[in-house]
Specification:
Layout lengths: L1 E6 L6 E6 L2 E7 H5 L9 H11 L8 E4 L3 H14 L8 H8 L6 H9 L6 E3 L2 H10 L6 E7 L6 E10 L5 E10 L4 H11 L8 H8 L7 H7 E3 L5 E3 L16 H7 L14 H32 L3 E5 L6 H10 L4 E3 L9 H13 L12 E5 L2 H10 L9 H13 L4 E4 L2 E3 L8 E4 L5 H11 L11 E3 L3 H4 L10 E2 L5 E5 L2 E4 L10 H5 L4 E3 L10
Parallel strand pairs: 1-4, 4-5, 6-11, 11-12
Antiparallel strand pairs: 1-2, 2-3, 6-7, 7-8, 9-10, 13-15, 14-16, 17-21, 18-19, 19-20
The structure holds fe (ii) ion.
Fe (ii) ion binds next to helix 6.
Length: 529
């Protein structure tokens, strides 16, 4: 059975193809159109998926869209009407924006792919997130926690997934929190207040938080309150995102936290304002983490399960995930490489396969490399035409020369195999540099990435060295089958090899592949979609 999954029209449009129950490829539209966070209907991504797998559109058994457009329109219309007359200025724009192609998705799919209407299916947004989280994780049964800005109405769901002995699969979402009460929207509001782009720069808030102190936690707790049933509610007097798309926070929010940051002025951590913004980021980050840890802890107690699958854009917040792993009581926590809306393309296709069509469960390869591959000779041709020097090296020389370059303080661009699916560079499209000096961080941010000084990097080490450099969460365990056939796991804060520690030198591929490296930290949350 051939199923195409599509996410589009909000941000991070993507396409994914599932054949006989297993993803065969997936790519975000932005990687092909070169427009960051491209939200357009992902025609290029769809074309590439079909080309790559040699499948004609008419051979598809189903095309699945990652959310229900009419339910989403219902939410937008209801919120606009509820906020009337305050929303009267924004109302025409909201309607214009929502009507048209965002609602008539079935027609768009049909016209582009020629797919008959009966073969076009829709999942709910958080069903897609949950499926992307659970069905790609190497676990038989797990609790599921999804959290994002908003889908149709839900902004956070808790549930459970199970692969049954007869091959069937169930995903049950037990409860949900609904718009406008949303952890993603809370974080996005602070993103806007701190002068960053909403739905784009949330990861900058997490990066900035590392430089601040959570001195404003009490203030943040005034804008998001815990409810007696263990959930949370935003105090809507502090927000405006629910009534207008032009402003996220209200004047009362400014009264509480002070003047917002001017996006055109750099953040100087030496100044009082700079420290205030960093403290503000640290405070919202702390409240987000505390809320997620509490929710995960309750879910652990309620379900009695030992595995947790995280989905939704909030699951890109690596710092919060580490605390969930350490403090919630779950023994293993799984986060897919694309927990945000792009990953919903995979989630929607898998949901249709396992739940709608009731196909037998299949094991899914545990890696993020689902995109287009590199053609070395084509790259060499382009580089030569561009007047660049091209040298072909065997693998041993390549590794040696790369190591020498890194040791000498040079920065290396590394490209191999298939493109990662999701926002992280995980070893196939990475910028490599040795962290021997603090100056390297500033150089990378300033000269290569053209970004602020507080932005973090993902440290990467071999598995064997993980104990030396990281405090591994005592409750964390992550199995990985490597090319050599041994398994490693993190138990009691130590990396241990289940079928004997590898002896001698690891194969070169393991040393330089994101698959086989303990990869901690990174850019963190990117966006809450
Ligand atoms: Fe989402």
């Amino acid at each position: 059975m051939k199923i195409l999954g599509i996410s589009a029209h909000y941000h991070d449009a993507a396409a994914a193809l599932v054949v006989d129950g297993v993803p065969v490829c997936a790519v975000q539209e932005e990687r092909l159109s070169r427009r960051k966070s491209d939200a357009a209907f992902p025609l290029s991504a769809i074309e590439w998926c079909l080309d790559h797998s040699g499948i004609r559109p008419e051979c598809l058994d189903a095309v699945v869209f990652y959310e229900r457009p009419m339910l989403k329109f219902d939410r937008i219309l209801t919120c606009a009407l509820r906020a009337f007359p305050r929303s009267w200025r924004a109302f025409p724009k909201a309607m214009k924006n929502s009507l048209g192609e965002k609602v008539w998705v079935r027609g768009i799919i049909s016209s582009h792919l020629g797919t008959p209407a009966k073969k076009i299916l829709f999942t709910e947004h958080h069903q897609s997130h949950a499926a992307a989280a659970f069905l790609t994780a190497p676990t038989k049964r797990a609790a599921i926690l999804t959290s994002d800005g908003v889908g149709e109405w839900a902004t956070l769901t808790v549930g459970r997934g199970e692969r049954h002995p007869d091959g069937s699969t169930s995903i049950t979402l037990l409860r949900e929190i609904r718009f406008p009460h949303s952890l993603g929207m809370l974080y996005s509001t602070f993103t806007a207040y701190l002068g960053f782009a909403v739905n784009e720069d949330e990861y900058k808030v997490m990066g900035l938080a590392g430089y601040g102190r959570p001195t404003m936690v009490d203030k943040v707790r005034r804008v998001i309150r815990r409810t007696p049933d263990g959930a949370f509610a935003l105090d809507l007097d502090y927000f405006e995102f629910q009534t207008t798309s032009s402003r996220s926070y209200s004047s009362r929010f400014i009264d509480l936290f002070g003047p917002p940051r001017n996006p055109y002025e750099p953040i100087d951590l030496e100044t009082e304002d700079g420290r205030r913004f960093a403290d503000c980021a640290a405070s919202v980050q702390r409240v987000l983490e505390d809320t997620l840890v509490d929710l995960a802890r309750s879910l652990r107690e309620e379900t009695g399960l030992t595995d947790l699958c995280l989905g939704g854009g909030v699951a890109l917040n690596g710092v919060a995930n580490a605390r969930i792993l350490a403090e919630s009581g779950f023994e293993r926590v799984f986060v897919p490489p694309a927990p945000g809306d792009a990953g919903c393309a995979v989630g929607a296709a898998l949901y249709a396969d396992r739940i709608h069509f009731r196909n037998v469960d299949r094991e899914i390869p545990d890696h993020p490399f689902w995109g287009p591959s590199v053609d070395g000779s084509e790259l060499a041709r382009i580089a030569s035409e561009d007047g660049q020097f091209v040298d072909e090296l065997n693998e041993a020389t390549l590794l040696e020369r790369t190591a020498d370059d890194l040791a000498a303080g040079r920065i290396v661009g590394w490209m191999e195999g298939a493109l990662e699916f999701g926002p992280r560079a995980l070893g196939h499209r990475s910028i490599l540099a040795a962290p021997h000096s603090a100056e390297m961080r500033d150089r990378l941010n300033r000269e290569i990435k053209y970004r602020e000084q507080f932005r973090p990097f993902a440290p990467v080490v071999t598995i064997e060295a993980a104990n030396r450099y990281f405090d591994l969460p005592a409750g964390g365990a992550r199995l990985l089958q490597t090319a050599r056939g041994y398994r490693w796991t993190i138990k009691s804060g130590r990396v241990t090899f289940e079928n004997g520690a590898p002896t001698g030198e690891l194969p070169g591929r393991l040393q330089r592949s994101g698959q086989a490296m303990a990869n901690h930290g990174g850019d963190g949350q990117r966006r809450p979609g």
